[in-house]
Amino acid sequence: MSERMITLDEVISALNTGKLKEAFASGTAAVISPVGKLTYKGKEYVINQGKVGPLAQKLYDQIIGIQYGKIKDPYGWMEKVT
Length: 82
Hints:
Shape: elongated
Number of domains: 1
Strand order of the largest sheet: 1-2
Low-confidence stretches: none
Largest sheet: 2 strands, antiparallel
Mean pLDDT: 92
Structural class: alpha+beta
Oligomer: single chain
Number of helices: 2
Distance between the termini: 40 Å
Helix content: 25-40%
């Protein structure tokens, strides 16, 4: 696995060749936000038929489960506030 900057041209190319299966963003308030559509250079590109992909759903379920105490927190993220 690697992490690097990518261009929108790479994203569009991967979408056009079928390599891009889903896209999402994450953040502290947003948790996981699926990206269903991009508009680039005046053209619209739909990702995964505009639906949540399986990886985004799995990550969302895991994070929410930890936040609500339904799943054990293996990362030490939670702190009890009294």
